[in-house]
Amino acid sequence: MAAPRAFLRLGAREWNGRARAIHGPREPVTPDSNQKRRTLLQFLSDHFHDVQALREYLLQKQASRVNWKNRSFPNIQQKYGPDVTGALFILKQGGAVKFQDKEWIRPNERGRFPTEFLTFREVPVEAVDASGCAINYQGMSNLLPLKELRSLSLQRCPNVDDWCLSRLYLLANSLQELSLAGCPQVSERGLACLHHLQNLRRLDISDLPAVSHPGLTQILVEEMLPHCEVFGTDWTRGPKLEADCP
Prior knowledge:
By secondary structure, the chain is an alpha/beta fold. The chain has nine helices and seven strands. Belongs to the ATP synthase subunit s family.
């Protein structure tokens, strides 16, 4: 976008000129000189429309990065199968996965992870910990083919919203544990979509700022899923998902 670049170049020239006046020889302080010496804050205020354009440009760049993180891997899926592909997607996001009868796999502090799971083509993924990941509606496509997924944690995922929850019905046959704690975009509308998940046994819906009436919502969800243990405001006093979760 041309406007932000032009603004930055103009701002640099303007500020460099002011900096020379600041660090150069002191001049007598007069009303005229004070009027000419504008601060960077004043300059930004005078060019507010350019700052707004810069902000919009940065938001677009951020959205592009999120979409890139949530891309699909058709070539890998064709070669290794849906479970390995889903595991790769979560690991690249910084999450953790557990294949059936295997140990948890998670990235190290540098984001690197072992690749022996590429040989697990015939081994299903049974648990996913995507806590804090940037997964969104588009990225859910990498998880929905995991037909034996039993436990899914989406805690504190900033991009998980009601539309994402509307897609979870595809995991209804296997999913038993689900955590949505701390997801800022999940509301009552999204929770209503969970009525398809009749095999759920544990559900965490605590700390959802978009839910207007948490107590009432928890009661309604319990009625909607009679065989599921629902945790809301008292989740910290209840049992955790998966005793062997990392």
